[in-house]
């Protein structure tokens, strides 16, 4: 045994994972189930990263989970949760099947049905002259996404040899932007905007977004959107329970100061040092932090190769966000909302809109350009107390807007707090475009800023999707799970993909790298495990336990 390890076995783990996002937790489950003793370290006081939930005046919010796709039996997200052994613990609500997503583009409206054929039919009804183009384009989107999913399972010489023949669509369009490909296929400007509006799910304008990546996002929701009963915390709880069940542990309030290295030229990871000064040792380390934090802060540039330092210097990170968390005492259904998300955008060129979103005018309290609006109490009926609804409204922007506040500490400066007040007013004015009288019904409001993202999630410049998802930073150009530092691995949104499912799959792939197993080997589903799915818009068939949960929630507020 390496003489760096202390004799006490309580400080000796097979794997230490830095960060408890769903990527880190996914890796922890697969490794601990394989017999490893795993320790997950989380700097926040609750695990989960972007998937964690928090409460404001008793009302729950989840900053990073707004919908999940492909959750029905045999679909990829369901397969992941079955393979993790947590499917039985999860309940999801299907968001409005006829409109899981609403596109508000200027004065135009379009509802996205949660069914591929229904989507085509709805688009043709609105744009009859584009019927042939709609069918051709969406078939291409589906084919490219299917071909992307083949790649992790490719094994052996002959299968590699046949990749070009089995991925001909992706090969043809892989290097083109979303804007370029959609311009080749679609003529109507409004139709292009509708088909592009989910660019917010990867945070890049159509002219910069990778077409295959956008295909994967669209395909993820072709069968609709789902929201977890209990919010993102329900997924995190199921995952942490699984980690503990297999004899490993998750520790919160454990901030890692650096990754400990030793050996020739300090090229082997042997443990971590916490900010408290405590040192913990393991045979390998997985970082669920982004590459910048992992390599430049936890490893240190002096320990990196010239090639990696060059890559890091060129790496750009995704946009950051403002998140308005509102509790309102009003009938949102009567106001026109349902369990579907709303994308609010002006009817203008989306690349221009995106640029204006990134650098908004913050000298006035005028409304922002665009916004994503979500009501968690309509998506998760079990969380509605009969009186108060929870709204999460998000807009994206460039971190430059907050550059002067990057060294903010608690307590926050008066200038920062005044800036937050101005931005909160801008957010409310934007929300009023959808809910004109919402201001009169606000019970509680809180604004999360890029500084909030940095503080709680520990992301580079408050980025919401890890590395920017442009051509040169995804797929074969993304950061690898296995690093140049011996026994150091990475997982998370910058490695495989972003989003709840993408980050989860990154943990699977990193565990596979360590265990020397292909994705298909780890993704063996358990037919006895099934995710429970109910309709957010129809409570008539809810089981007794769910009806009781909803009734108890309403009784609690009625007695106050």
What layout of secondary structure does this protein have?
Blueprint: E1 12-18, H1 22-33, E2 38-41, E3 54-56, E4 59-61, H2 76-84, E5 91-94, E6 101-105, E7 108-112, H3 116-126, H4 131-150, H5 156-161, H6 163-166, H7 168-173, H8 178-185, H9 189-196, H10 211-220, E8 226-228, H11 232-245, E9 249-251, E10 256-262, E11 268-274, E12 279-287, H12 291-299, H13 306-314, E13 320-328, E14 341-345, H14 350-358, E15 371-375, H15 376-379, E16 389-397, H16 414-431, E17 442-448, H17 450-457, E18 488-490, H18 499-515, H19 519-522, E19 532-535, H20 544-558
Parallel strand pairs: 1-2, 1-12, 2-9, 5-19, 6-14, 12-18
Antiparallel strand pairs: 3-4, 5-8, 6-7, 10-11, 11-12, 13-16, 13-17, 14-15, 15-16
Question: What can you see in these coordinates?
Answer:
Helices cover 36% and strands 18% of the residues. It is α/β, with parallel strands linked by helices and 560 residues long. It has three domains: 12-91 and 229-314 and 478-522, 3-Layer(bba) Sandwich (FAD/NAD(P)-binding domain); 116-219, no CATH class; 319-457, no CATH class. Strands 1, 2, 9, 10, 11, 12 and 18 form a seven-stranded mixed β-sheet that branches. The chain is globular, with a radius of gyration of 23 Å. Mean pLDDT is 92; it is low at 1-10 and 152-166.
Count of domain modules: 3
Q: Could you tell me the number of beta strands?
A: 19
Q: Give the N-to-C terminal Cα separation.
A: 61 Å
Structural class: alpha/beta
CATH superfamily of the largest domain: FAD/NAD(P)-binding domain
Rg, nearest Å: 23 Å
Q: Which CATH top level class of the largest domain fits?
A: Alpha Beta
Low-confidence stretches: 1-10, 152-166
* Number of helical segments with 4 or more residues: 20
Sheet with the most strands, sense and barrel status:
7 strands, mixed
CATH fold descriptor of the largest domain? FAD/NAD(P)-binding domain
CATH architecture of the largest domain: 3-Layer(bba) Sandwich
Helix content: 25-40%
Global geometry: globular
Residue share in β-strands: 15-25%
Could you report the average pLDDT, rounded to the nearest whole number?
92
């Amino acid at each position: 045994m390496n003489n760096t390890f202390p004799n006490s076995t309580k400080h000796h783990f097979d794997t230490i994972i830095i960060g408890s996002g769903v990527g880190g937790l996914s890796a922890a489950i697969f490794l601990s189930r394989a017999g490893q003793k795993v320790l997950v370290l989380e700097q926040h006081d609750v695990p989960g990263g972007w998937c964690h939930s928090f409460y404001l005046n008793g009302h729950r919010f989840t900053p990073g989970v707004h919908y999940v796709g492909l959750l029905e039996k045999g679909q990829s997200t369901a397969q992941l949760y079955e393979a993790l052994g947590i499917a039985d613990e999860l309940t999801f609500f299907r968001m409005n099947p006829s409109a899981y997503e609403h596109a508000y583009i200027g004065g135009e409206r379009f509802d996205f049905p949660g069914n591929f054929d229904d989507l085509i039919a709805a688009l043709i009804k609105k744009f009859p002259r584009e019927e042939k183009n709609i069918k051709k384009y969406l078939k291409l989107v589906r084919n490219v996404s299917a071909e992307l999913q083949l790649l992790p399972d490719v094994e052996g010489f002959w299968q590699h040899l046949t990749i070009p023949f089995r991925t001909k669509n992706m090969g043809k369009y892989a290097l083109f932007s979303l804007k370029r490909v959609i311009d080749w296929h679609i003529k109507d400007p409004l139709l292009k905007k509708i088909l592009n509006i989910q660019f917010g799910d990867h945070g890049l304008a159509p002219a910069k977004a990778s077409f295959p990546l956008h295909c994967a996002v669209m395909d993820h929701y072709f069968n609709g959107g789902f929201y977890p009963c209990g919010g993102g915390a329900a997924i995190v709880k199921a995952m942490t329970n699984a980690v503990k069940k297999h004899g490993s542990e998750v520790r919160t309030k454990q901030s890692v100061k650096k990754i400990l290295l030793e050996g020739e030229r300090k090229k082997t990871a042997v443990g971590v040092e916490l900010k408290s000064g405590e040192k913990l040792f393991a045979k390998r380390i997985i970082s669920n932090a982004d590459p910048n934090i992992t390599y430049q802060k936890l490893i240190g540039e002096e320990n990196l190769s010239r090639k990696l330092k060059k890559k890091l210097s060129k790496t750009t990170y995704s946009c950051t966000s403002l998140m308005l968390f509102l509790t309102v005492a009003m009938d949102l259904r009567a106001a026109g909302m349902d369990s579907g998300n709303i994308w609010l955008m002006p009817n203008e060129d989306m690349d221009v809109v995106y640029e204006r979103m990134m650098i908004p005018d913050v000298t006035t309290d005028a409304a922002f350009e665009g916004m994503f609006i979500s009501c968690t109490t309509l998506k998760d009926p079990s969380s509605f107390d009969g009186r108060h609804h929870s709204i999460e409204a998000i807009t994206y922007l460039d971190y430059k807007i907050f550059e002067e506040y990057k060294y903010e500490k608690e307590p926050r400066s008066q200038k920062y707090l005044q800036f937050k007040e101005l931005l909160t007013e801008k957010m409310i004015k934007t929300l009023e475009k959808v809910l004109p009288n919402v201001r009169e019904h606000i019970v509680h409001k809180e604004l999360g800023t890029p500084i909030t993202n940095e503080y709680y999630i520990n992301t580079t410049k408050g980025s919401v999707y890890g590395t920017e998802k442009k051509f040169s930073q995804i797929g074969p150009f993304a950061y690898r799970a296995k690093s140049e530092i011996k026994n150091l691995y990475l997982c998370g949104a910058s490695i495989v993909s972003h989003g709840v499912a993408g980050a989860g799959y990154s943990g699977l792939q990193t565990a596979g790298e360590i265990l020397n197993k292909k994705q298909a080997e780890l993704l063996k589903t358990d037919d006895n495990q099934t995710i429970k799915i109910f309709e957010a818009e129809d409570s008539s068939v809810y089981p007794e336990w769910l009806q009781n949960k909803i009734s108890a929630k309403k009784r609690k507020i009625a007695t106050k």
